[in-house]
Specification:
Elements: H1 18-34, E1 52-53, E2 63-67, E3 71-74, E4 77-81, E5 83-86, E6 94-97, E7 103-104, E8 107-108, H2 109-129, E9 139-144, H3 150-162, E10 167-170, E11 173-174
Parallel strand pairs: 1-11, 2-9, 9-10
Antiparallel strand pairs: 2-3, 3-4, 5-6, 7-8
Helix pairs in contact: 2-3
Length: about 180
């Protein structure tokens, strides 16, 4: 008696990629869910170097105020050119400051006027929409250079507060 060999099908079985497609779909869904975009645009510049932080909060929609070494910008529109003056604390060095003719006490007049326009426009928009989601909250995003003197930042914040913006959010680079 002769033993017969077991027969295998002669046709090659195709590659089963069902489980690979399932895995790729799960990865794609995970990546889409974890992707987030922010409404804050930061233009790299020698005049603006943001500080770093370990914050976990995402930026929110608000008026965007940029205080760089050479100018102050509100929502992309330049408002005031900054100047340099001798630093009284460090003889022989200079520091960035708001020109004296642009201020009335602690209030920066052109910045105040521009921010007040933004506040009134936001209030009008909120009234017209009738939606609580669009209500004016007095929120402002501040991007300021990390080497900016605190006196300039104090004047900017005081001016924003006088123009009905009382909730300050600072934009920083996130460190991992």
């Amino acid at each position: 008696m002769a033993l017969k060999k077991a027969r295998r099908p002669s046709a090659d079985a195709g590659l089963n990629i069902t489980s690979m497609m399932d895995m790729m779909t799960i990865i794609l869904v995970f990546l889409l869910k974890s992707f987030s975009s922010s409404d804050v645009s930061v233009a790299p510049s020698d005049q603006l170097q943001l500080p770093t932080s370990t914050t976990q909060k995402a930026p929110e929609l608000a008026v965007n105020l940029v205080v760089a070494k050479n100018q102050i910008v509100v929502d992309g529109v330049p408002v005031i050119a900054m100047t340099t003056m001798p630093d009284s604390d460090n003889p022989g060095q200079s520091m960035v400051a708001v020109p004296e003719d642009e201020k009335r006490g602690q209030v920066i007049t052109k910045l105040y006027d521009r921010l007040l326009e933004k506040a009134e426009a936001a209030k009008t928009l909120a009234e017209q929409s009738g939606n609580e989601e669009h209500a004016f909250k007095g929120r402002i995003l501040i991007q300021c250079d990390k080497e900016l003197p605190f006196s300039v930042l104090r004047e900017v914040m005081y001016t924003a507060g006088q123009a009905q913006f009382g909730e300050f959010k600072f934009v920083v680079y996130k460190t991992e």
